[in-house]
Each structure stands twice: as structure tokens, then as C-alpha cells.
UniProtKB/TrEMBL annotation:
Quaternary data: Homohexamer; trimer of homodimers.
EC number: 2.4.2.1
Pfam entry (one): PNP_UDP_1
Catalytic reactions on record: a purine D-ribonucleoside + phosphate = a purine nucleobase + alpha-D-ribose 1-phosphate; a purine 2'-deoxy-D-ribonucleoside + phosphate = a purine nucleobase + 2-deoxy-alpha-D-ribose 1-phosphate; uridine + phosphate = alpha-D-ribose 1-phosphate + uracil
Site (Important for catalytic activity): 218
Family according to the record: Belongs to the PNP/UDP phosphorylase family.
Binding site for phosphate: 21, 25, 44, 88-91
Protein name: Purine nucleoside phosphorylase DeoD-type
Functional description taken from the UniProt entry: Catalyzes the reversible phosphorolytic breakdown of the N-glycosidic bond in the beta-(deoxy)ribonucleoside molecules, with the formation of the corresponding free purine bases and pentose-1-phosphate.
GO process terms (BP): purine nucleoside catabolic process
Length: 234
């Protein structure tokens, strides 16, 4: 049985699924990091692939942008395809002055201006946190490979184009490391279904300084994050 948004055979996904926002990043990851990768779904051009990394099955699938889109794919992957580890590999805008382009952020927690988690959680504020075991594995592997990471809170925004730029001052004061658009929703989907989730982010731009990666830099920077994630979790 397929789902409204994923047309794959039962058993087509591995228990570990990497989740970039961009479906073409999913293809890039499948082409460059997985052996014997096969495209298992392409509904709406939201590509999903399964292959192996160091002999172990791994899947990768795009989620689209924003919590609603990401939540659809994460929910269907868990409910219908048995995915147990949802690991977002995304990009974010940096908030803190000491953070630079290419830095890797591990989203220990995710604040949000989205209302979706309140809808799930009876109107209460849900503390959207990463799975500790996945987080610990990333931290340990990064230390082993001497890759610097920043671990802490991110902000999952509904709006990419913030109408009130002064919100950045609040983010800065509260120690938010990066702004992206999915982690808080992904963590709540995982909690609802009793599976594990983590968000690993590469800093693609610095919001205050107006710096941004060019196309080639994006690919190189994301590759470092993807390799680290796969080495840590496979
Ligand atoms: O690069 P991805 O994973 O898509 O992540 C970030 O980029 C998109 C916005 O450009 C949002 O999805 C945001 O979370
Ligand atoms: O969601 C995002 C992604 C990159 N940079 C941002 O400012 N926001």
C-alpha cells in the first residue's frame, strides 16, 4: 500500500532515513554517498532513495520546505514505511556572531513560531528536542573526526522572509544558533510516534552579516555534514 505522497513498495525504506529539505539534495546524497541507490518514490518530484552506506541500508528523501510539508513525509515514512530514525540534514541561517558559514549545528532543541505542536499537544508548549542517542553519536563522531560542531537550540520559522527583523535580537539573546523551518515539527512527529529524530544543519548564510554560500560552497559544505551524519549513524 502506498500513501498519498509516497509511492514506494512496502519495505522500500531503511530504518534510517536522511531528510534534506531539497529533493535534489536527496538525489545528490544518493548519487555521491550511497552504493546501489535506487529511486523508490518520486511523487510531486519529492525524490526518495534507498541504498547502502558501508554495507548498511540507508534511505534519503526530500521533505520540502516548512513544518507542514516535512510533517507529511515524516509521518508517512514512520507510519507506512517503518522508518525509525528521522535525520534532517538541512541548511540554516546563523544568528550568533561567532558562527560562520559552513559551520555545523546540531539542533538539540527547536523553538518555533508555528502553531502545529500546540495543535498536537493540547495547546501546551511542547519542548521539541532531539533524540539523545542520535545526538550523542553525532557529537562523538564529530569529536573523533576533529570536526567542530555547535550544539544547542535552533528556531524553526514559518516565514523565511521575516516581516520583523528585530526578532533577531531576541533570538541572539536567547542563544538561538540557527534559523531554519522544520526541526520543531520533525521532533514532534517523532515524539508522537515513538521514533527518533535529529536535525543536523550547515550554516548556509549569516542573517545579520548578509553573508551567503555560493552554489559550489553549498555542495562542499553539505557534503561534510552528510558524511559526518552517515559515519556517526551507520
Ligand atoms: O536546506 P533545507 O533543508 O531546505 O532547509 C532550509 O532551507 C529552506 C529555506 O530556504 C527551508 O527548508 C529551511 O529549513
Ligand atoms: O530557513 C532558513 C534557511 C536558511 N537561512 C535562513 O535564514 N532561514
Amino acid at each position: 500500500m502506498t500513501t498519498p505522497h509516497i509511492a514506494a513498495e512496502q519495505g522500500a525504506f531503511a530504518p534510517l532515513c536522511l531528510l534534506p529539505g531539497d529533493p535534489l539534495r536527496a538525489k545528490f546524497i544518493a548519487d555521491n554517498f550511497l552504493d546501489d541507490a535506487e529511486c523508490v518514490t518520486s511523487v510531486r518530484n519529492m525524490f526518495g532513495f534507498t541504498g547502502t552506506y558501508k554495507g548498511k541500508a540507508v534511505s534519503v528523501m526530500g521533505t520540502g520546505m516548512g513544518i507542514p510539508s516535512c510533517s507529511i513525509y515524516a509521518t508517512e515514512l514512520v507510519r507506512h514505511y517503518g522508518v525509525k530514525q528521522l535525520v534532517r540534514v538541512g541548511s540554516c541561517g546563523a544568528v550568533q556572531p561567532q558562527t560562520n558559514l559552513h559551520d555545523i549545528i546540531l539542533a538539540q532543541g527547536a523553538c518555533t513560531d508555528s502553531n502545529v505542536n500546540r495543535q498536537r499537544f493540547r495547546g501546551f508548549d511542547f519542548a521539541a528536542i532531539a533524540d539523545f542517542d542520535l545526538l550523542r553519536k553525532l557529537v562523538n563522531e564529530a569529536e573523533r573526526q576533529a570536526i567542530n560542531t555547535q550544539v544547542g537550540n535552533v528556531f524553526s520559522a514559518d516565514l523565511f522572509y521575516q516581516p520583523d527583523p528585530t526578532v533577531l535580537e531576541t533570538f541572539k539573546r536567547y542563544g538561538i544558533l540557527g534559523v531554519e523551518m522544520e526541526a520543531a515539527g520533525l521532533y514532534a512527529v517523532a515524539a508522537e510516534h515513538g521514533v527518533s529524530a535529529l536535525t543536523v544543519l550547515t550554516v548556509s548564510d549569516h542573517i545579520e552579516r548578509g553573508e551567503a554560500m555560493d552554489a559550489e560552497e553549498r555542495q562542499t559544505g553539505f557534503s561534510r555534514m552528510v558524511k559526518l551524519t552517515l559515519d556517526a549513524l551507520v
